[in-house]
């Protein structure tokens, strides 16, 4: 969503697909990576998006080696909702996977959460952030609230534009709320000038999960969330 919204800005050019350079394709070399990028003027910023970088151990060092001035934008949302959303998406592709509950716990009665399951591990933001802070100062990392991006897209995008050091061009007038999807849409897309809503996987109805499982997960994430809030100096109010 952030990529789709920010690319409306005349000072930003963005790569549409996820290049996965700093995780899967690093062996192809920097020239390969550069060749994928849109042509830009000196005054423009080039943006790419690959969510898995955030949880890839080698990514911070590799990005730092390319350019220590790189600005990083991370969209975070309530880790419990994030895990359910992740599971919902996987389920739509592989209907025969185990239940959410079965994948979440190593031992349900003892409340032992299986942190090796990706859907759970990704939401442990404080853990992943440590790797990044070894290379980049917090001033070069901006955290976008996934929740506020839905309720106040213009406000969140205003902060993104400030962080990138560009004029606040994207404002309220760029958005309308799509009630069917429960998600904001752009009134005009960068390429066609027609309204642009995110793909069909966005705003998808989540699988119903036992409230007790949700409560156990909330307890599990709480210490990680608190540490994350303290580290970044921002309270996302996921409690």
UniProtKB/TrEMBL annotation:
It is a single-pass type II membrane protein. Disulfide bonds join 185-197. 3'-phosphoadenylyl sulfate binds at residues 77, 85, 202-206. Its EC number is 2.8.2.-. GO terms for cellular component: Golgi membrane. It is found in: Endomembrane system; Golgi apparatus membrane. Coiled coil: none annotated. Keywords: Disulfide bond, Glycoprotein, Golgi apparatus, Membrane, Signal-anchor, Transferase, Transmembrane, Transmembrane helix. It comes from Chloebia gouldiae (Gouldian finch). This is Sulfotransferase. Residues 2-222 form the Sulfotransferase domain. GO terms for molecular function: [heparan sulfate]-glucosamine 3-sulfotransferase activity. It comes from the Eukaryota. It is an enzyme of class 2 (transferase). Belongs to the sulfotransferase 1 family. InterPro entries: NST/OST, P-loop_NTPase, Sulfotransferase_dom. Its main location: membrane.
